[in-house]
Amino acid sequence: MKVNSEINQEKLDELKGNAKVVIHKKLGIRPIAGSKANKHYHDVACEMIVRSHFRPHKLGKGSLFQGTVGIGKSEMLRLVRAEGKAFDMFTMSEVSAMYNDSPRVYAAAVKNSPRHLILDDVGTETQSIHMGARLDVFCDLVDARYDYWCRTGWTLSISTNANWDSLEKKYGKRTVSRLKQMTSVVAWADNDLRQQL
After folding, report:
1. Minimal CA–CA distance to 80: which of 113, 41, 114, 109?
2. Which of 7, 65, 139, 162 has the highest CB neighbour count under 10 A?
């Protein structure tokens, strides 16, 4: 996927305006109205879309979207994936199933993909097994993508219902430490919007 090497301020302003319009039209105002945290969540999603138009080394960190169930994290990430450039997005259940079917396909499609990676629903996956070999795919991905991020700048962004303590219990200190270095936390403080429908 070809991306621009230079950030032109006029192009940047245009992309920011387009990203905000897209998010408002496709998500509506309700999921992002209210608290300062929700406005920040919206602004970060816009920024992810905009930054995806430029070379990876310009991007810095990915984003870690945290919050309770039903507040729109997955929907926001799907929108970022659809509107941005050079994003691959998978749920952790899809990634686990991919590894179980074929570790080689998993490595090529997810682990070593030369694109920005978005992982949805981190913490909901089960341990993966292929021909008796067990693997915690999230830890494996964080290790691989950490090295890739350091070398190339391609980012990792995730969504999760878990807090840092829960993530550390499930994946260990090493994985969480790398995740903290690679991402900026976007906590969305709101109630389950599905219950309001």
Report:
1. 41
2. 65
